[in-house]
Amino acid sequence: MGLMSENHPHSVLGRHDYLPAAGHDLLLPAFDLISRVVGTPALHDRLIEQAELEPGHRVIEIGCGTGNLVIKAIRAQPRADVIGSDPDPRALARAERKAKGSAGLRFEHGYAQNLPHPDGGFDRVLSALMLHHLPTDIKAAALTEALRVLRPGGRLEILDIGGDTTRANTFLSRQMLRNGHVKANLALPRLLESAGFDHTLVSSEPHPRMGHIVYYQAVRPA
Ligand SMILES: C[S@@+](CC[C@H](N)C(=O)[O-])C[C@H]1O[C@@H](n2cnc3c(N)ncnc32)[C@H](O)[C@@H]1O
Q: Which residues does 175 contact at the CB level (< 8 Å), separation at least 6?
């Protein structure tokens, strides 16, 4: 499935059919530094806590980028079975280097809207700062796919930019709104509902560098 749509003109996607972690391949080496500067590690910690990972849990992160969240996940619950999935081979190569030696964690090439996994095999799907990279039609497809791969009662745990993000928030939020990323993310609750999830807004708050951050917990009904 391609990502050409009203929200992502070709000039944004360049030669890829996905929007890379830092917006451009050339910026990927700086992604982890940028993440630290904007305060992502603390946001990741909260998502891991929200996910309540248990021994034996099968977990997949859609859009894992350079692997920062899944590395935290396997450290938090070393007896889980964790997959980091992303369409960007460059990001996956970085993630694999960083995660070397972490038993229980592996990476795979994949698109959130088309996961190479059978129905109902996962206890948790994690999504951190990824959904705003998708145009609305692909985002809807990705949420439907997350529901498909979760077992009944399994949970999609989301951290993203959204909520009351406005141009007045920060420089970064102005850039994101200009590309249509965040604007399209405001529809998340409706899309979660349409995909068939029971969802809760866990938290919605202004963030000093990213504009406005939301956490959702979405359960595949039993
Ligand atoms: C801002 S990065 C976030 C990376 C990681 N989740 C984190 O929190 O550090 C967004 C990631 O989404 C990935 N992405 C873009 N389109 C995607 C798609 N259709 N399916 C899955 N991942 C996608 C990008 O390659 C990128 O690595």
A: none
